[in-house]
Amino acid sequence: MLNKTILLFSTILLLLSNINAQEEVVMEINGQAVTKSEFLQIYLKNNDAPKYDKASLDDYMELFTKFKLKVAEAEALGYDTVPKLKRELEGYRKQLALPYLIDSTENKAMVAQAYDRLRTEVRASHILIRLKPNAKAEDTAMAYNRLLGLRKRIIDGEEFEIVARSKNGTEGNAVDLGFFTAFQMLYSFEETAYTTEIGSVSMPFRTKFGYHILSVTDRRPAKGTMKSAHLMISSTSESSKEEQKSAERKINEIYALLQDSLTDEKWKNMVTKYSDDPSSSRKSGELPLFGSGTSQRMVPVFEDAAFSIQTDGAISKPIKTDYGYHIIRRLEWNDLRSFNDMKKELQKRVNKDERSKKTQDVFVTKLKAKYGFEEGEKQYLDWFVENLDSSFFVGNWTGDNLKIDNVLFTIGDSNYRQMDFSEHLRRTFRNGRGKSFQEIVDSQYKVWVKKGVLAYEESKLASKYPEYKALVQEYHDGIILYEVMSDKVWNKAVKDTIGLKAYYETQKSKYMWPDRIDATIYTCASADVSQSVYKMLKKKKNNSKVILGAINKESELNLDVKMNKYIQKATPFLKGRIFNKGRNEGYEFEDKFYVVVLNEVLPEMPKELKETKGAVISDYQNYLEKDWMKVLVEKYPITVYDNVLYNLGVDE
């Protein structure tokens, strides 16, 4: 069967490229052929600057052989039949199919529209009445009419915000949404915002959150894309007045220090030391890209402050948000890229976005015409309206009392019958709450037909598009490879504690601590502070906590204390210095002052397993993999056809 599949795949490639010669085979593993085109496709995908010399090809072939051996073993062990992995592959397969299940003309128009909108930012306020997706018809009508009443009040002259905050207005939702652009809101919201004039109020419209009306308050040219970092001192509405004042004093102290000779290193150190944002403090405060062309938004006051910074590397004055006080640093600003530069990226985003549904509806209509879509008699669908009962709403209804399983629609050579629709209804019963049986049948039939038409086209993709088939195979191999590697190598190394310890004992000399010192380091803001610390250390009662409290009484920035074991030659401010046991006089290094209390000199010694467990596990995994590969090489015969391999670059 496999040989037939390879032959068919080869035949398609030959027809597409008008080549009459038989597809060449570059290697065989366990009797399974790998064609030249398959190998070349993967080779080019993994090499941005491919080389075709013997050494480069040999190196890659070695990696590829290991990959194929592991996949062969995974298949032999039945990993491709595991239900969980089959479901995972099916999910990826459907994602890969999406770009092939849209109308290209409509899709191009949506891409062009998205770029046009990226060039302009819209500011809007909205009122939302929340509704569940399966809300009852009367609740939907009530929400819609309620918003019509609010809209009339605004049109008649009342302020939008006053109406929104009134008893009948918004339910605790933000009113002013600030500026946004394409891809930063749900598409239905974006569509309404961009098609509503400044000062106008939209008609009520639906999103997955409920019904909205919105008012567009401003438009402006896109500000571009901002890469920034921040240093944040937390201060929320729940903080006490004293805590808020303390946070404000602290951010102002930090700002004053940053203004004095700001460098990348100084910024990094200050963020690491003082920022209360754990998600960014370890990355020098770096934040996700925001602005035009991104899906990321920041609160308006933050965006305004960031975009007002004139040069890369400069910082803003402290600003206040609901999260606390921020100092923003501009890392890089870029104007919106050209359409040609963004086209592929926009294509992907449109395909994943709600916009794709619009292009898909057009595509379904064309598929119906192409494959001769025909519907059965209306009475076959009416049967469901007549036979649904209250058991449907709790998921217990079935179509078992059908006497004849009639065809509801046909597409190509596939028939979709009443029992098929019955099963679809059973799975989607939760979407029917609050609706009449007629509404349920009508709406779910449309959904089911669309799914059926797309499924029919999807079943033909592998034969129509070789690149799609290759991608699905790549995901198949990747999924089972990950699982077999987890079981045979990665997880085994972690769970096999006895084997890990035995491996560590035989390799202990690889994991050594160099000479170290056990010390308490006092990092001081000035020479005066270091002198005060040195004097206080003379009295044994003055431990680090006492000294820290005394020195930092006026400012949190005066002193920092760390107790640790340090590799002296690898620590810049300790390197090359001689310390006596106990306290040592302060010294200056790179604008900081240090007082070192030497507790103990630690000679070279093996690291304990718990101190180097990560490195030992990594090495043990490599050891297990090498042993495993020896078994696979013996188990599965390998043949590489050098004459094909070394001629890969001739015609490329």
Description:
- It is a single chain.
- With 652 residues, the protein is of the alpha+beta class.
- Among the domains are: 120-221, Chitinase A, domain 3 (Roll); 225-335, Chitinase A, domain 3 (Roll), CATH 3.10.50; 371-461, no CATH class; 512-606, Chitinase A, domain 3.
- The strands form six sheets. Strands 15, 16, 17, 18 and 19 form a five-stranded antiparallel β-sheet that branches. The chain has a four-stranded antiparallel β-sheet with strand order 4-3-6-5, sandwiched between helices. The protein has a four-stranded antiparallel β-sheet with strand order 8-7-10-9.
- Helix 5 (104-118) crosses helix 12 (339-352) and helix 5 (104-118) runs antiparallel to helix 13 (355-370).
- It starts with a helix and ends in a 7-residue tail after the last helix.
- The relative contact order is 0.10.
Q: Within the CATH hierarchy, at the fold level, what is the topology of the domain at 225-335?
A: Chitinase A, domain 3
3D shape = globular
CATH architecture of the domain at 225-335: Roll
Let me know the largest β-sheet.
Answer: 5 strands, antiparallel
Mean pLDDT: 89
Query: What CATH first level of the domain at 225-335 would be assigned?
Result: Alpha Beta
Radius of gyration, CA atoms, in whole angstroms: 33 Å
Structural class: alpha+beta
Q: How many angstroms separate the termini?
A: 31 Å
What is the helix fraction of residues, given as a range? 40-55%
Number of helices: 23
Per DSSP E runs of 2 or more residues, the count of β-strands stands at 21
The percent range for strand residues is 15-25%
Which regions are unreliable across 5 or more consecutive residues at pLDDT < 50? 1-21
